[in-house]
Amino acid sequence: MSGSPNDTIFALSSAPGRAGVSVFRVSGPGARESLEKLSRKKAPSPRYASLRKLYDRNGDIIDEALVLWLPAPKSFTGEDCAEFQGHGSPAIIEAMAQVFADIGLRQAEPGEFTRRAFENGKMDLTEAEGLADLIDAETEGQRKQALRQMQGGLRELYETWRESLLDALAQIEGEIDFPDEEDVPDSLSHKAYPHISSVIESMSRSLSVADRGEAIRHGVDIAIIGKPNAGKSTLLNALAGREAAIVSSEAGTTRDIVSIYTVLSGLQVRLSDTAGLRETENVIEAEGVKRAIKLANDADIRIGVIDSSDLGALSQLTKELRDDDILVFSKSDLTHNVAHNVSRETYKTLSVNANSKADITKLHDLLETEILSRFAVGDEAGLTRARHRDCVQRSLTALERAIEKLGFAPELAGDDIRSALQAVKELAGETDIESVFDRIFSRFCVGK
User: Fold this and answer.
1) Angstrom distance (rounded) from CA 262 to CA 271
2) Is 43 helix (H, G, I), strand (E, B) or coil?
């Protein structure tokens, strides 16, 4: 950030524009002085709201507002802070911003309040990321996950890893530093094995469900795939409750991806209709098929749609599906051959008439059940970002090397444990990763 950490900063923390209340925050060494200059009275008792008239530099009243004095270190940023809760007219907001500038305060940069809280030890980097996710949360699942991370859920997990690795390192270094001491047991480094093993198991478990945390944060991608005229677009429209995709009896009508956004089981979902899967010489349609296959590969869940009267296409469609995906036999009202004798393998199957409200409700309920079973927010903290996954994966790789070397080269195993600890420190934001800090905090709003 371009400003000095010794600056006293201010920002509007409520939404801009006309509102019942506007909230300005001030943080830094001049916070108390700014409160007393604007109110022309001594600061109120810490953390007690006081109704004050606020004046500009000419002595004219700007507003009458509630003010709070929050001395360090018991404040959000860990610095001296003041808060001004006034009326929310654009004219008052503009006048308040001007008077703060007039007395020498600097407009805060995006995320600067939270960054100061992080740098002053009020939160670690994972908790700051959780706060950012909480501000952006649009669904109940996102809110729960972000709140858990903001409250230190991930911090508790990696602190457990850190303690175990420090215990393991102490055992190893005890053998290396005091090999001939009678009170140092032989093969002390082997006592490090359970500590390392428990962390490897825990990290592996966290990585195995990392997709869940990232899907909750970004939303769940569901791709509808199948041959042309299988009924994909009709199914999308039925689930959307509106005409989102063009439906035509002409094969190849859908050539690009058509997506709708909805909420299922408390999570944001992007449901996408794709081009029909077939060989074609049409350049545009071929590109649509290519995009459809890529989207299917990247999607969290695939809905394979097959015309109930065209079961011969089943083998081609299932090449694009994975275990536990959903297989829909469409147009069930037009044929009695509804795939009762088809090998269903490991797919969730459903016969659907897209014009039947009952059938669409069954599909909707099946999707909610699948999303809930795969992506529901659990009790344990999880990894929610690619940065988390990268740090844990590097730490895990180092520990797997360490456990291989423990029996014959404990000093090398110790080096690998130190590498693992370094990756954990990076997860917490305790290392010098300035570019990561800038990227994270720049995404906050100005008043946060």
Assistant:
1) 8
2) coil
Q: Which helix (H) or strand (E) holds 197?
A: helix 193-208
Question: In angstroms, rounded to a whole number, what is the distance separating the alpha carbons of residues 82 and 32?
Answer: 7
Euclidean distance between the first and final Cα of the chain, in Å?
14
As a whole number of angstroms, the distance between CA 344 and CA 331 comes to 18
Give the C-alpha separation, 4 to 106, whole Å: 10
SS3 319: coil
Burial classification of residue 229, based on how many CB atoms lie within 10 Å of its CB (0-12 exposed, 13-18 middle, 19 or more buried): buried
Using alpha carbons only, what angle is made at residue 435 by residues 429 and 439, rounded to the nearest 5 degrees? Answer: 90
The pair of three-digit structure tokens given for residue 392, joined into one six-digit string: 């844990």
Q: For residue 409, count CB atoms less than 10 angstroms from its CB and return exposed for 0-12, middle for 13-18, buried for 19 or more.
A: middle
pTM given for the model = 0.71
Q: Which of 288, 330, 292, 324 is closest to 311 using CA atoms?
A: 330
DSSP string, 209-231: THHHHHHHHH-EEEEEEESTTSS
Rg for the chain (alpha carbons), in Å? 29
The pLDDT tens digits for 181-197 are: 544 444 556 788 899 99
CATH number of the structural domain 216-375: 3.40.50.300
Residue 311 is encoded by which pair of tokens? 């079961």
Count of residues in the chain:
448
Residues 128-209+383-429: name the CATH superfamily. Answer: tRNA modification GTPase MnmE domain 2 (1.20.120.430)
Contact 335, 308 (CB under 8 A): yes
Query: pLDDT by residue (tens digit) across 340-382?
Result: 444 555 678 888 888 888 988 998 999 988 888 888 766 667 8
pLDDT in tens, 46-100: 999 999 999 999 999 999 999 999 999 999 999 999 999 999 999 999 999 999 9
pLDDT of the residue at 314:
77
Domain ranges of the chain: 9-121, 128-209+383-429, 216-375
Question: Has domain 9-121 been given CATH number 1.10.600.10?
Answer: no
> Hey, what are 141's tokens?
């699942």
Position 316 pLDDT exceeds 80: no
Residues 88-102: tens digit of each pLDDT: 999 999 999 999 999
The whole-angstrom separation of Cα 318 and Cα 321 is 5
